[in-house]
Automatic annotation (TrEMBL):
Pfam family, one: PRC
UniProt function note: An accessory protein needed during the final step in the assembly of 30S ribosomal subunit, possibly for assembly of the head region. Essential for efficient processing of 16S rRNA. May be needed both before and after RbfA during the maturation of 16S rRNA. It has affinity for free ribosomal 30S subunits but not for 70S ribosomes.
HAMAP family, A to Z: Ribosome_mat_RimM
Source organism: Alteromonas oceani
Major localization class: cytoplasm
Gene giving rise to this polypeptide: rimM
Official protein name in the record: Ribosome maturation factor RimM
The keyword Chaperone is assigned to this record: yes
Domain PRC-barrel residues, every copy: 95-168
The record's note on its domains: The PRC barrel domain binds ribosomal protein uS19.
Length: 173
């Protein structure tokens, strides 16, 4: 499955800041300022935007995009998702994985029981969690499972080629 042409959401345009087209930026990157390492930004209006300048503003960050020159222009792009081409993301090591790669993977216990398919990945603050949609005929009557995505103690392997995650997990839980 080629993901080279996929788009990845890395943030969201916030409220206008001032009258000269500046906007607040809600960054989803690990380090908030890391969002500016990617260019161009593809906004949900279907257009590409280049960053003219940016700066920290208190605990937030604000940016001026090229061709966004007024508060009205800034209002027009408010609340739009910021995406990039997936090919712009850095290559990961063999033991690393992007969350988006986990979606749709089969989840199997170390004993070979099919738990289901990953539907979502999210962070609880303590650790990442995968939401697994169980098979329709699940022997334990589960519709879904929330499984901590913690290597070694729960997640044993992630096979990107076969698209299978092997976990040490009680199917009845």
């Amino acid at each position: 499955m080629s993901q080279a042409s996929d788009k990845v959401v890395i943030g969201k345009i916030g409220a206008p800041y001032g009258v000269k087209g500046w906007v607040k930026i809600n960054s989803y990157t690990e380090v908030p300022e890391g969002i500016f390492d990617y260019s161009p930004w593809l906004l949900a209006d279907g257009k590409e935007y280049q960053i003219d300048q940016w700066r920290p503003h208190g605990k937030a960050i604000v940016a001026k995009l090229i061709d966004i020159d007024s508060r009205d222009d800034a209002e027009r792009i408010k609340n739009l998702d910021i995406s990039i081409d997936a090919e712009q993301l850095p290559e990961l090591g063999d033991d690393e994985v992007y969350w988006r790669e986990l979606n749709g993977m089969q989840v199997v216990t170390t004993q070979g029981y099919q738990l289901g398919v990953v539907k979502e990945v999210f962070n609880t603050g303590a650790n990442d969690v995968i939401r697994v949609k169980a098979k329709a005929n699940d022997a334990f009557g589960q519709k879904e499972r929330l499984i901590p995505f913690v290597f070694d103690s729960v997640v044993q392997t992630v096979d990107k080629t076969e698209r299978v995650i092997t976990v040490e997990w009680d199917p009845g839980f």
